[in-house]
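User: Hi! I'm working on a homework problem where we have to compare a predicted structure to a textbook description. Could you give me the structure for the chain below?
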Amino acid sequence: MTVLVLTRPKDSTADLVIAELNERSVPVHRLDPGDFPGHLGMTARIGPKRSVWAGVLRGEHRDLDLRQVRSVYYRRPSEAGSCPHLSEQDAQWAAAEARAGLGGLLAALECTWLNHPRRNAAAGAKPVALATGAQCGLSIPETLITNDPDEARAFIGILPGRVAAYKALGGQGPSGVNGEPYALWTTQVRTAEITDAVRLTAHQFQEWIPKAYDVRLTVVAHKMFAAKIHTSSEAARVDIRADYGSHTYEPCDVPRAVASGVRKLMDVFGLHYAALDFLVGKGGEWHLIDVNPNGQWAFVPELRAPITHALADLLEGAQ
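Assistant: Happy to help. Predicted structure tokens:
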């Protein structure tokens, strides 16, 4: 039985798990859906006498029998469907068919997923994640989503310090001159900075929480790995992603009430893995701000090995 790793060609995070599985002599098949149809072929059948797909994915060097997949590690793969020799209209149609065909076939695999893409999609929607977190007993910041500038001004005007945190709902900004999206960091916003441009799309504003530090909590099945993130720059104080060089990390325990709420959240979404971000206030209160069902975890040195082992345990033990 094989562990299928779906990821891009260069993924140092997936490499850690693959190396651990190789060390354990667990069969691994690494695949990027972006290779289909150029460097990857597929043939699969289903019918009235069998309720699951049987078939083969044919790569340049190795084939994969779909019936031999014991678990799937879904690590930010690229999308199938690049057809550069077709016209633009035909290429769009062929790409959509490729994603529906290969993506649907993979999604139909009945095995342990870490995590299944449809579960990632549900947990990755920020409004859904915040509501679910609150329903599971976790503290969340006061939050407004709107495209009404008057509502935004009114919301900020009653917050402590009359300042809000603005964070993109999709996690990244619009495309730059090279066509690549650029990062859009969390910023502090005051009422005077709200303009009529707010009407053009949805915006998320949150209560600004004076924090003692951030926490990244990584969950693998029922195991929790938490680290305090201390920052030494102003940019990182507002958004830790803005200056990783200013970070120091300190593994920490998870308060019992927070751990209970996180377990409920994982169960509601059906996740085997998640990376959650918390702001910890001056009084020690943990506030959930993000659920990342496919988030990074290897950047905390002290937790890299134990998380790798936990992921490998889950993928290896699946039947």
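For your comparison, note the following. The domain at 121-139+210-314 is CATH 3.30.470.20 (D-amino Acid Aminotransferase; Chain A, domain 1). The first strand starts at residue 2 and ends at 7. Good luck with the assignment!
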